[in-house]
Design goal:
By secondary structure, the chain is mainly α. It has one domain. Helices cover 46% and strands 8% of the residues. The chain is built from seven helices and four strands; from the N terminus they run ααβααβαααββ. The strands form two sheets. It has a two-stranded antiparallel sheet with strand order 1-2. Strand 3 and strand 4 form a beta hairpin. Helix 2 crosses helix 3, helix 5 crosses helix 6 and helix 6 packs across helix 7.
Length: 156
């Protein structure tokens, strides 16, 4: 009896898809150019961008294997969204805060973001000033300033 190897395993996706390729696919499929790390994509958008079935992502969430989604109840209609930084960190197999750090070094070159705490405080400032914000249709409570963590992204 032959065993069938699935091409949409976590290791396979991580091996064939680089974070740069993921960003290129987001731009090609959805027109998302120069995304900021806490910007989110829906489960459907992510499944198309990384080339796996929608149910595969749901299974990965249950098994805690894939990229980390934002907490449920954060977005309208309790849909599942994934911060872009979490997907990129998962693809690169590195801590999520390093993705934020790399982005901040490009976007805010005058700021010191050498440590995780410096990185977090700068991101919190950017969120409070609403410099970078989610599209209005995704936000549940538009006037409340959301919380931020490297694991969960931006959440209420």
């Amino acid at each position: 009896m032959t065993t069938r190897k699935h091409k949409n395993t976590v290791a396979h996706v991580q091996a064939i898809l680089a974070p740069k390729d993921f960003l290129d696919r987001l731009e090609e499929l959805y027109g998302i150019t120069k995304p900021f790390p806490w910007q989110v994509v829906s489960r459907l958008q992510l499944s198309r961008a990384i080339g796996v079935h929608l149910q595969t992502l749901a299974n990965w969430d249950i098994r805690d294997k894939g990229p980390k989604p934002t907490p449920r109840g954060t977005w309208r209609q309790n849909k599942v969204y994934y911060p872009i930084a979490n997907v990129m960190a998962w693809l690169d197999q590195k801590p999520g805060w390093e993705v934020y750090q790399e982005w901040l070094k490009i976007e805010c070159p005058t700021q010191d973001v050498g440590s995780q705490s410096q990185c977090q405080s700068l991101i919190e400032q950017l969120i409070e000033t609403r410099t970078y914000k989610q599209p209005q249709w995704k936000q549940k409570l538009r006037f409340k300033i959301p919380n931020f963590s490297f694991e969960k992204g931006v959440y209420l």
